[in-house]
């Protein structure tokens, strides 16, 4: 359905702008006039691009997706407007012109229309599972049923902002080591494939016995020079095959199990999963979502199928009457401290508070661990690059020194 942006006058004569999706400009004018809004100009905008974006939120070009930061900002603004006693439809109408993402603008417009047609806010959100997670939808549903929608929206904004902040810290911390690794590999490849063959060609003309280290360098250089295209194709094929395999059920299970068994990375992933699990479960419980539906929701945000299966199995034990802490402890995947804090929260009736404290602890531990790893990773990369460059320089310098001895 086309999207029209309009400039109009309200019943008090004030200028207003907004968007509306309908079959034609004529019908758009009729709808606006029926709402006591008198259009001055109506223009069709972004119809094709918005349709493409709304259809491809999850599977298409990543630059056309609705970003989590945009959802977080929209949620915070909506919570503020609703908290100021604005009706929900009016609050969404106020947000639509301020939204930069064309896909999100289209979705908000359709959500507003659905609410005006009698749908609940959660029901309207559930039509866009690619944009709004099950956590988001269920918390909104709980807020609507309890009459505390503005509080729930504030909580949702806190959750998304906290997760976004943690993800940004992880990305920014790992960006420099990753850049150094890629840059070092490119420079090394260039040296071995382009520079070294030109230098070592001098040695072949001398017809003298070369040191072992030089012969090794020349062999590596010849392989890269002769088969660099094949090497790149094989590398790309391996990356594609790995991506395809990871999307299969068995491949993803094997990949996640391998990650959890890695010495340092496995511990870090467990802590990150615990932080996500405890913070999300605490927010759901605090906003009125029952325990079993909450566990069903949080199993999808663990980021690891092994941990997701454990949460799902634990929820079955909880359904039989066991506590969350006891059911999770049986699988030896969650850290002992997290299990103890959950059990203390269940016994004291302060489960939500203990879940939040556990989330704070493990989020801080994840951040500290990444910083520590990065501080060790940078000198390690520099050391490896120094060894590689030293190997190349020594391989070239040794025969030159022997040639000088023969001349003297």
Radius of gyration (CA) equals: 30 Å
Percent strand equals 5-15%
Query: What oligomeric state do these chains adopt?
Result: single chain
Contiguous runs where pLDDT drops below 50 for at least 5 residues: 46-64
Query: What is the CATH class designation of the largest domain?
Result: Mainly Alpha
Q: How do the strands of the widest beta sheet line up side by side?
A: 2-1-3
Q: How are helices and strands ordered from N to C?
A: EEHEHHHHHHHHHHHHHHH
What do we call the CATH topology of the largest domain? Receptor-associated Protein
Give the helix tally. Answer: 16
Number of distinct beta strands = 3
CATH architecture of the largest domain: Up-down Bundle
Main sheet record: 3 strands, antiparallel
Query: What count of domains describes the coordinates?
Result: 2
Output the CATH homologous superfamily of the largest domain: Type II secretion system (T2SS), domain F
Rounded mean pLDDT is: 80
* Class from secondary-structure proportions: mainly alpha
Structural write-up:
The protein folds into two domains: 3-158, Up-down Bundle (Receptor-associated Protein), CATH 1.20.81.30; 159-408, Receptor-associated Protein. It is built from 16 helices and three strands. It is 75% helix and 5% strand. The radius of gyration is 30 Å and the shape is extended. Helix 8 (149-206) packs antiparallel against helix 9 (212-247), helix 9 (212-247) packs antiparallel against helix 16 (351-407) and helix 15 runs antiparallel to helix 16 (351-407). The chain has 408 residues and is mostly helical. Strands 2-1-3 form a three-stranded antiparallel sheet. The model is unreliable at 46-64 (pLDDT under 50).
């Amino acid at each position: 359905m086309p999207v029209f942006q309009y400039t109009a006058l309200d019943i008090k004569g004030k200028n207003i702008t907004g968007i509306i999706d309908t079959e034609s400009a004529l019908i758009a004018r009729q709808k606006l006039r029926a709402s006591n809004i008198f259009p001055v100009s109506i223009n069709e905008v972004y119809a094709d691009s918005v349709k493409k974006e709304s259809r491809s939120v999850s599977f298409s070009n990543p630059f056309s997706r609705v970003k989590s930061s945009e959802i977080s900002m929209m949620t915070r603004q909506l919570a503020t407007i609703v908290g100021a006693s604005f009706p929900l439809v009016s609050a969404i109408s106020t947000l639509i012109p301020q939204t930069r993402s064309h896909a999100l603008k289209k979705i908000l417009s359709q959500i507003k229309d659905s609410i005006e047609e009698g749908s609940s806010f959660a029901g309207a959100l559930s039509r866009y599972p690619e944009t709004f997670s099950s956590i988001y939808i269920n918390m909104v549903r709980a807020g609507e049923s309890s009459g505390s929608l503005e509080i729930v929206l504030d909580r949702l904004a806190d959750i998304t902002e906290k997760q976004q902040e943690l993800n940004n810290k992880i990305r920014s911390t790992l960006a420099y080591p990753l850049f150094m690794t890629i840059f070092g590999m490119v420079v090394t490849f260039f040296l071995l494939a382009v520079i070294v063959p030109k230098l070592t060609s001098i040695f072949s003309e001398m017809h003298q016995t070369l040191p072992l280290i030089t012969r090794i360098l020349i062999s590596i250089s010849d392989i890269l020079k002769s088969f660099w295209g094949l090497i790149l194709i094989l590398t790309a094929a391996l990356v594609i095959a790995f991506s395809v395999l990871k999307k299969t059920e068995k491949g993803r299970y094997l990949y996640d199990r391998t990650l959890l068994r890695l010495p340092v990375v496995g511990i870090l992933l467990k802590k990150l999963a615990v932080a996500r699990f405890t913070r999300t479960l605490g927010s759901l419980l605090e906003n009125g979502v029952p325990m079993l539906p909450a566990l069903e929701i949080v199993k999808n945000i663990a980021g690891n199928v092994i941990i997701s299966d454990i949460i799902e199995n634990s929820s079955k034990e909880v359904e039989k009457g066991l506590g969350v802490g006891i059911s999770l402890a049986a699988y030896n995947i969650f850290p002992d401290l997290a299990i103890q804090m959950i059990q203390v929260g269940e016994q004291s009736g302060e489960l939500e508070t203990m879940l939040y404290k556990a989330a704070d602890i493990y989020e801080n531990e994840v951040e500290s661990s990444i910083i520590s790893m990065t501080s060790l990773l940078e000198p390690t990369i520099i050391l490896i690059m120094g060894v590689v460059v030293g190997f190349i320089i020594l391989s070239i310098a040794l025969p030159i020194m022997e040639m000088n001895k023969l001349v003297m």
